[in-house]
Amino acid sequence: MDIQEFVAQSIGCWKSQRSAHHLAFGHFEAITSVIDIVNLPIDDPAVVSLCQDYATDLSQIVSPFRMIWEGETDWDEKPTKGTCVLVPVPDSDRHGKLLRDQGYAEEMAAVGHYHFTDDGTFVLVTEYDRAAAEEKIWFVNPNVRCRVSLIKTSAGNGVVTASFSSEIRQEQ
User: Fold this and answer.
1) Residue 56's closest CA among 111, 104, 3?
2) DSSP state of 60
3) What's the DSSP call for residue 96?
4) Containing domain of residue 110, as a range?
């Protein structure tokens, strides 16, 4: 698996069921959402802007995409929604950086470092000002994928949130 294959397999509309354990609050949260993952052209203004922000030449990037999500949680009455542009910058077939215009653990632009394990699992580690996120995504089959996310303290030695998501591709 490389980043281009991973992104190509991820394109589509996904129904997600996530369970999150917020250890700091002693709270369990159930989240259902719809996630749309769409290809972006390399010359898309949002891609160009993100690359400029991180002094990354467009010739270094592959398979930029946008994630759009909308969901409901039992923790908050109002729906959650958002969008994020993601730009992979591979260093090799199995390693690289992922530029994000919005982070996962903190709502700010971020650069994560990814790699693929021998079984094809995508592993992304992103360090923020006050936290660090580790995400693992793998495909059970072309239409089912799983995601595990950990939000850790900035020192990386304490887990604040742990979540598991199962995501099923919706027919277009």
Assistant:
1) 111
2) G
3) E
4) 3-169
